[in-house]
Specification:
199 residues; mainly alpha; two-stranded antiparallel sheet; 2 strands; 59% helix; 2% strand; extended
Length: 199
C-alpha cells in the first residue's frame, strides 16, 4: 500500500504538489463575498440588484404582446376547461339523477368532459382572435398602449358574434369594450390615484 502523504502526483509537464504556492488562489476578498478564481473578479461589482437576465441591446425589459400571447392563450384554454368542467358537474348531477352506480358515473364523466372541452374551445378561440388582432393593431400603430388593448377586445367581440346578426354583434363588441376598459383601468389605477392626489 502506497503512503498517500508522500505521493507526488505528476502532470503532463512535470510534477506538482498540493502545497505549491502558485496554485493557492484566494477565494475571499475583504468581507464575505467570494472572488471567482477564473475571472479574478469580485462579484459585488456585478450584482447591481437588477433582474438577472440578459436583454439584447435596444429591447425593452417588458415582454411584448407577441410573447404574452402564448401565455394568454394557454391560460384562457385552461380557465375555460376548468369552468366547463365545473359547469359539467352541475349539469351532470341534474341530468343523471335517475341513474345509479357505474352508469351514472360514466354519464357524469362524459358530460363533464364534453362541457370542459366545449368551454375550453370557445374561450381559446376568443383568446386567439384577441391576440392576433392585438398584435396586428400593435404592429400597425407601432406602439403598445391601452388603445391597442381596447381596440383588439372590441374587434374580437364584434367578430366572434358576427354570424349571429348585427344586434348580437353589437352586444359582443360592447362586452369586449367594457371588459378591456375595466382591465386597463385596473392596471392604471395606481397612476390614476397618484395623479388625483396631486390636485
Amino acid at each position: 500500500m502506497m503512503d498517500q502523504r508522500g505521493y507526488q502526483p505528476s502532470g503532463l509537464f512535470g510534477g506538482y504538489s498540493y502545497g505549491d504556492p502558485t496554485l493557492n488562489v484566494p477565494v475571499t476578498s475583504g468581507g464575505s463575498s467570494t472572488i471567482s478564481p477564473y475571472l479574478n473578479l469580485d462579484p459585488r461589482y456585478l450584482n447591481t440588484g437588477d433582474a438577472e437576465f440578459i436583454v439584447p441591446t435596444g429591447q425593452s425589459r417588458v415582454r411584448g404582446r407577441f410573447e404574452l400571447a402564448f401565455s394568454q392563450i394557454g391560460g384562457s384554454v385552461m380557465a375555460g376547461a376548468v369552468y366547463g368542467g365545473v359547469n359539467g358537474i352541475r349539469v351532470a348531477r341534474s341530468q343523471t339523477a335517475e341513474l345509479a352506480g357505474k352508469v351514472r358515473m360514466s354519464q357524469m364523466l362524459t358530460l363533464v368532459t364534453k362541457q370542459g372541452a366545449s368551454a375550453a374551445n370557445a374561450v381559446g378561440v376568443v383568446a386567439v382572435m384577441y391576440s392576433i388582432l392585438g398584435l396586428g393593431i400593435s404592429w400597425t400603430r407601432g406602439t403598445e398602449d391601452e388603445i391597442n388593448t381596447i381596440s383588439a377586445a372590441t374587434a374580437t367581440g364584434l367578430l366572434y358574434k358576427s354570424s349571429a346578426g348585427l344586434r348580437t354583434m353589437a352586444k359582443g363588441g360592447a362586452v369586449g369594450l367594457a371588459l378591456s376598459s375595466l382591465w386597463c383601468l385596473y392596471h392604471k389605477k395606481d397612476k390614476l390615484l397618484g395623479s388625483d392626489s396631486n390636485y
